[in-house]
Design a protein that fits this description.
The complex is a heterodimer of chains A (163) and B (666). With 163 residues, chain A is mainly alpha-helical. Chain A has six helices and no strands. Chain A is elongated. Chain A starts with a helix and ends with a helix. The N terminus and C terminus of chain A are likely disordered. By secondary structure, chain B is α+β, with helices and mostly antiparallel strands. Chain B has four domains: 160 residues, Four Helix Bundle (Hemerythrin (Met), subunit A); 239 residues, no CATH class; 119 residues, no CATH class; 103 residues, no CATH class. Helices cover 64% and strands 11% of the residues of chain B. Chain B has 23 helices and ten strands. In chain B, strands 2, 3, 4, 5, 6 and 7 form a six-stranded antiparallel sheet that branches. Chain B has a four-stranded antiparallel sheet with strand order 1-10-9-8, with helices on one face. In chain B, helix 10 packs antiparallel against helix 14 and helix 15 packs parallel to helix 18. The chains are: A mainly alpha (163), B alpha+beta (666).
Chain lengths: 163, 666
C-alpha cells in the first residue's frame, strides 16, 4: 500500500541504473524440480537490503547474488534445510521471513493464540453469567403474547416505506 | 505571494484550532450556549483556512512554482497535469496538508450536519477534533512547512518518483486519508461521550455514519494500493505484508470491529464500554500508521534517530492522543452502565465473536509489524517477519470470521435458534460444496486448503444471498410481495448483505491467485512463442515509444488459445530521464475469471532476445470486485434513512402524523 511513499522510494534510491526484475531466465536451473525447490525456498528468504521483500521478488543485486548462491548450494546436493542453514550461518535469522520459534519470539508466535484463548475465556465466563441472566429475564412467550407480537410485526411491515 | 498566503493560512488554522479545542469544552462545562457555539464557527474557519492552504500548495504545483522547495523536490514542467496535482500529496509535507485538510473537513461536516446532536456533545466532539488539529498543525508549522522557499529558484524540478506517477496511486492517498482521518471523528465522539458520561443508542447512531464513511474510504484506499502493486511490480503480487501495508490494515480491522459493535450499542444498548475503547484504538492505529510511515522508524531504529525532530514529535503526538484517550476511558468508562443481557447464541453473541476474532487478528498484525522493532530496541537481535508468519497466524484467524459471517445476520437478537439458522443456510452450504467441487474439477486437488477455502467463499457469498432472500421471504410469498418487501428492506440490511458477499468474493480472488497462478519466465526472440496454461504468447515486436516525460520500450504480444485469437498485449518498460528510473508497465488481459499478465523486460544477455514473464492469475479480478462491493455495501448502509433522521424514531407517533412528510432533517 503505502509502500509507495516509502519502500519503493527507498528501494529506488538504493538501486540505480536499469532494474533487473526478480528472477531472471539466465539464473534459472535447467532441472525444473530443483528450480521449483529454489523458488519455494527463495520466497521465504529476505533480501537484506530491501524493506521486507523476499529475494524471489526483489530487484536488488544482492537478491540476485543470494538467488544464485542458493541454487549453487542445491546443485551441490544440499537439502532444502541445509541450503537455508548455509545462509542463516552467514546472515543470521534476519534472512528468514518466517522468524524462528525461540524464547525471544514466543510472544510473537503464541501471543495471538493466547489472546484468543484469554479473550474467549473471559467472554465464555461472562456469557454464562449473561445467559443465566437472560433465562431469568425472558421466560418464553405465551401464545397470547406471540399473537400480539405477530400483529405488531404486521403493523411494522405496513408502516415501512412510508415517507 | 500565494505560498506565503498558504503558510499564513496554515498558522491561522493552528490558532483557530487552539480556540476550537478550548472554548467549546469550557462552554460545555459551564453550560454556556454562546461559548459552545464557538466550536461550530471555529470548525468552519479552520476548514476555510486549510482549504486556502491546500489550494495554495496545489496552485504552486499546478503552475510549477520552482521557488517553492516542495515543488522543486517533487515536480517537473514535463510532468502530466494529473500528476502535478497528485504530486501535492505525494510527499511528506503535502500529505500532511491533505491530512489536516480532511480533518478540518470532517470537523466542518459535524458542525454543519450535527444539528440533531445535543449542543454539549457537539461542542465536546468539535473540541476534541480541534485538539487533534492542533497537534498536527503544530507539527507541520514546527517541522514540515510545505511552503519553504528556495532562492535562487532552480530552472526545473527533480520530478516526482515515477512509481507515484500512476492513476491508481494518484488517488490512493486521499481515500486512505479519508479513512484514517474519518476515524478521528469516532475518536472525538468517543471522547466527547466519555466527558458527557453518557453513551446510548442515539450516540451509536450518530457515530455510525462517520464510521461507515471512514471504513468505506479506507476499504477503497487499501484496494487501490493493492491493485497498484498488482500491475506495477511486474509479477502480480497484490499484498506483501509490508509494514506500511499493515499500517493501513490495522485500522481497517479495528474499524470493521467498531462498525459491528456499534450495531449492538444501537440496537441493544450494551457493549458500550467496549465500543468506546474500539473507537479510541481504531484512531490510535490510524495515528500509528501515520507515525510508522512518516517517522522512518520502519526502515530501522537508526533512520528514526537521523531525523529526530519529526520522529520524536509524531511519537509524542501518538503518546498524547493514545494516552489521553485511554486515560479518559479508564476514568470515565466505569460510569457507563451495561445494558441488555443476551444468550451466547444470539445476534449479539455473533457480533461479540466477530469482535473477538477481528481484534485478535488486528493484534496479530500489530505484533508482526512491531516485533522486529521491539526486538531491535531491546537488543534481542534483528529478525524479519514476512508473509510466512502472517499466513501461519492471520489467515487461520480469518477462516472462522468468514465462516461465522454467513450465520450472524440470520441470528435473532437476545437468543437465537442455531439449528434453525443452519437449516436455512442449507443452500449456502450446498453452494460452498459446489464451489469446492468446481475448484477440484478445474484445478485438481493440489492445495487441498485452497479448495476448502474456495468452498468457504462460496458459503459466505450465498449466506449473504440467503440473508436477503430470507428477509424478503423470497419463494415463500408471491413474488410481487417479495419485491415490495425488498424495496422496503432497510438499506442497512442491504448494505450488510452486499458487504458480506463482497468479502466472500474477495476471498475467492485471494485464494484463486495464491493457489493456482501459472508462471513462465524465459528469454524470447521476436516471433517466438511460449505456452502458459493453455494460452500461447507470441512476441511480435519490440519498439521505442515516446511518452510525455519518459521514453518507453513497448513490446507487442499476440495471445492465442488453440489457434484462436484471444488478445493483443502491449507491456512497457518506461525510463524516466529526470530521476533516471525505470518502471514496469505490465499488460493485462482480463476475462473476469482470470487475468493474463505479461511483462517484457530487459534485452537478454545474448543481445537478441528479451527477458519475458507471463502469468495466468485465476480469479484475481475478484479481489477488487469484492473490495468495491464491500465499499458499496458501506455506502448503501450509509444511505439508510434511520441514519439521516439521526434520532431513534419514537413508536409513539400517531399514524396520521407519521404519514405527514416529516421534519426538515430528512
Amino acid at each position: 500500500m503505502r509502500r509507495v511513499l516509502f519502500t519503493l522510494v527507498l528501494a529506488a534510491t538504493l538501486l540505480s541504473g536499469p532494474l533487473a526484475r526478480a528472477v531472471q531466465p539466465d539464473e534459472m536451473l535447467s532441472d525444473p524440480a530443483m528450480e521449483a525447490r529454489a523458488r519455494a525456498i527463495s520466497k521465504d528468504l529476505r533480501c537484506l537490503v530491501c524493506q521486507n521483500q523476499s529475494i524471489d521478488d526483489s530487484d536488488a543485486p544482492l537478491a540476485r547474488d543470494l538467488r544464485l548462491l542458493l541454487r549453487e548450494r542445491l546443485v551441490k546436493g544440499d537439502t532444502d534445510a541445509q541450503a537455508v542453514a548455509f545462509l542463516t550461518d552467514r546472515y543470521g535469522d534476519y534472512v528468514l521471513l518466517r522468524p524462528p520459534v525461540r524464547p525471544a519470539t514466543y510472544l510473537l508466535w503464541f501471543g495471538p493464540f493466547a489472546l484468543l484463548v484469554v479473550g474467549g475465556g473471559i467472554l465464555l465466563w461472562r456469557g454464562r453469567r449473561g445467559s443465566a441472566g437472560a433465562e431469568a429475564l425472558a421466560p418464553p412467550l405465551t401464545a397470547e403474547e406471540k399473537a400480539h407480537l405477530a400483529m405488531l410485526m404486521r403493523d411494522e411491515d405496513e408502516g415501512k416505506g412510508r415517507p | 505571494m500565494i505560498p506565503e498566503l498558504g503558510h499564513y493560512a496554515l498558522v491561522l488554522a493552528l490558532v483557530v484550532a487552539l480556540v476550537q479545542s478550548v472554548i467549546p469544552l469550557w462552554g460545555a462545562a459551564r453550560r454556556d450556549a454562546a461559548m459552545m457555539e464557538v466550536g461550530r464557527t471555529a470548525a468552519y474557519c479552520q476548514f476555510a483556512a486549510l482549504a486556502l492552504a491546500f489550494g495554495a500548495l496545489t496552485y504552486a504545483h499546478v503552475v510549477s512554482d520552482f521557488s517553492v522547495l516542495n515543488v522543486v523536490e517533487n515536480s517537473h514542467t514535463d510532468k502530466p497535469m494529473l500528476y502535478k496535482v497528485a504530486g501535492v500529496w505525494g510527499n511528506h509535507e503535502g500529505s500532511l496538508v491533505l491530512w489536516v485538510f480532511i480533518l478540518a473537513l470532517f470537523g466542518a461536516l459535524v458542525a454543519a450536519f450535527g444539528r440533531n446532536l445535543p449542543a454539549s456533545l457537539r461542542a465536546r466532539v468539535l473540541a476534541v477534533q480541534g485538539m487533534i488539529g492542533v497537534g498536527f498543525l503544530w507539527f507541520m508549522v514546527a517541522t514540515s512547512n510545505p511552503f519553504t522557499r528556495v532562492d535562487p529558484a532552480p530552472l526545473n524540478g527533480h520530478d516526482l518518483n515515477p512509481l507515484l506517477q500512476d492513476p491508481g496511486l494518484a488517488f490512493h492517498p486521499p481515500f486512505l486519508y479519508l479513512g484514517y482521518v474519518g476515524f478521528s471523528l469516532c475518536f472525538s465522539f468517543a471522547a466527547g461521550a466519555l466527558i458527557e458520561g453518557r453513551v446510548d443508542a442515539a450516540w451509536a447512531r450518530w457515530v455510525r455514519p462517520w464510521a461507515l464513511i471512514a471504513w468505506s474510504s479506507l476499504t477503497l484506499g487499501i484496494a487501490m494500493g493493492s491493485w497498484w502493486s498488482y500491475y506495477t511490480l511486474g509479477w502480480g503480487g497484490w499484498w506483501f505484508w509490508d509494514p506500511v501495508e499493515n499500517a493501513s490494515l490495522m485500522p481497517w480491522l479495528a474499524g470493521t470491529a467498531l462498525l459491528h459493535s456499534a450495531i449492538v450499542v444501537e440496537k441493544r444498548d450494551t457493549l458500550k464500554s467496549w465500543t468506546i475503547l474500539l473507537a479510541i484504538v481504531t484512531f490510535t492505529l490510524s495515528l500509528m500508521g501515520t507515525f510508522l510511515v512518516r517517522s522512518g522508524v520502519l526502515t530501522s531504529v537508526h533512520a528514526f534517530a537521523s531525523d529526530p525532530a519529526r520522529g520524536v514529535f509524531i511519537l509524542a503526538l501518538l503518546v498524547v492522543a493514545t494516552g489521553g484517550g485511554l486515560l479518559l476511558y479508564a476514568l470515565r468508562a466505569p460510569v457507563l452502565k451495561a445494558g441488555g443481557l443476551f444468550a451466547p447464541i444470539s445476534r449479539e453473541g455473533g457480533l461479540v465473536l466477530n469482535n473477538l476474532l477481528l481484534s485478535t487478528a488486528c493484534a496479530t498484525v500489530f505484533l508482526g509489524t512491531l516485533y522486529p522493532l521491539f526486538m531491535d530496541a531491546v537488543g534481542g537481535g534483528k529478525i524479519s517477519i514476512g508473509p510466512p508468519f502472517f499466513n501461519a497466524t492471520f489467515v487461520p484467524l480469518m477462516v472462522p470470521v468468514v465462516a461465522v459471517m454467513a450465520l450472524g445476520p440470520l441470528l435473532s437478537w437476545k437468543r437465537a435458534d442455531l439449528a434453525g439458522v443452519l437449516g436455512r443456510l442449507k443452500i449456502a452450504a450446498l453452494v460452498g460444496v459446489v464451489a469446492a467441487l468446481a475448484a477440484l474439477w478445474l484445478a485438481g486437488t493440489k492445495p487441498v486448503l485452497a479448495v476448502l477455502a474456495l468452498g468457504l467463499a462460496g458459503w459466505a457469498v450465498m449466506g449473504a444471498v440467503v440473508d436477503v432472500a430470507d428477509r424478503i421471504r423470497l419463494f415463500r410469498m408471491p413474488l410481487s410481495d417479495s419485491i415490495s418487501r425488498a424495496r422496503h428492506l432497510p438499506r442497512g440490511a442491504w448494505g450488510t448483505a452486499i458487504a458480506h458477499a463482497g468479502l466472500g468474493v474477495a476471498v475467492a480472488g485471494m485464494v484463486g491467485t495464491s493457489a493456482w497462478t501459472t508462471e513462465a519466465i524465459q528469454v524470447l526472440h521476436i516471433g517466438q512463442s511460449v505456452d502458459v496454461a493453455g494460452y500461447s504468447f507470441r512476441l511480435d515486436s519490440v519498439a521505442e515509444a515516446p511518452g510525455p516525460n519518459y521514453t518507453a520500450r513497448r513490446a507487442v504480444l499476440t495471445v492465442t488459445r488453440n489457434g484462436d485469437f484471444v488478445a493483443t498485449l502491449a507491456p512497457e518498460q518506461r525510463f524516466y530521464p529526470v530521476t533516471r528510473m525505470t518502471t514496469t508497465g505490465a499488460a493485462i488481459h482480463t476475462n473476469f475469471f482470470s487475468d493474463l499478465y505479461a511483462v517484457v523486460g530487459e534485452p537478454a544477455p545474448d543481445g537478441t532476445g528479451y527477458n519475458t514473464r507471463f502469468y495466468r492469475h485465476p480469479l484475481v479480478p475478484w479481489i477488487w470486485v469484492g473490495s468495491i462491493l464491500m465499499m458499496a455495501g458501506g455506502l448503501v448502509s450509509l444511505s439508510d434513512r434511520r441514519l439521516r433522521v439521526g434520532v431513534p424514531l419514537k413508536r409513539a407517533v400517531p399514524r396520521a402524523a407519521a404519514a405527514v412528510p416529516p421534519a426538515p432533517a430528512e
